[in-house]
Design a protein that fits this description.
With 88 residues, this protein is α+β, with helices and mostly antiparallel strands. The protein has a 4-stranded mixed beta sheet, with helices on both faces. α1 links the parallel β1 and β2. 23% of the residues are buried.
């Protein structure tokens, strides 16, 4: 099973990045997370993620200015995978 999904929205015009992210996250299964490559921090997205039962981590990216990791609230396997990726 694939645990990491990557979505590059860094070249898309507003509001398409948010639309793509919101269309992708319902498909995340237990243990899976989404890595979003973005050119800016999408502050309006965070409230929506919270309302829909998702947790996220935002950091300065390696490939793009911003990387956002998104997983379902309470999914410790996905959260552990994200933490492992961050620590190398």
């Amino acid at each position: 099973m694939k645990t990491k999904h990557i979505l590059d929205v860094s070249q898309l015009e507003p509001c398409e990045p948010m639309e793509r992210i919101l269309a992708t996250i319902p498909n995340l299964q237990a243990g899976e997370y989404l890595q979003v490559l973005h050119r800016m921090e999408p502050h309006p997205l965070y409230r929506i993620l919270t309302q829909q039962g998702f947790t996220w981590l935002t950091q300065t990216g390696h490939e793009t200015p911003i990387e956002i990791y998104i997983w379902r609230d309470g999914d410790s396997k996905a959260e552990t995978s994200v933490v492992r990726e961050q620590t190398g």
